[in-house]
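Subgroup meeting minutes
Present: P.N., E.W., G.H.
Scribe: E.W.

1. P.N. recapped why we're keeping a running log of single-chain structure predictions: easier to compare across weeks, and new members can see raw inputs and outputs side by side.
2. G.H. added today's entry (98 aa).
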Amino acid sequence: MIKGLDKGYVVVYIYHVFNNSRLSLAKKEDRMDIVILVATILAIVGAVNWGLAGLFGLDLVAAVTGSKFGETNTISKVIYGLVGLSGLVVLGELAGLI
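Output recorded in log:
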């Protein structure tokens, strides 16, 4: 699990990573921590988007990319793809595969 994330100190962790970027990015474990943190944030954004779509019929990705609900364009496909990959990364982390 990401150091600090289990205690809810995501902001402190982000500050630590960017404040010590020269040291942090040198280690493979620290790079994976950053990947997992970004994947977790994207998965949360995706979950919120699905919640808004289900409860209120509002698709934030479509709204941001200039589409109507249910329509896709290149940008929205990239966003949905990244969110999907992020979900798999988080699932792998939770299962202990990463």
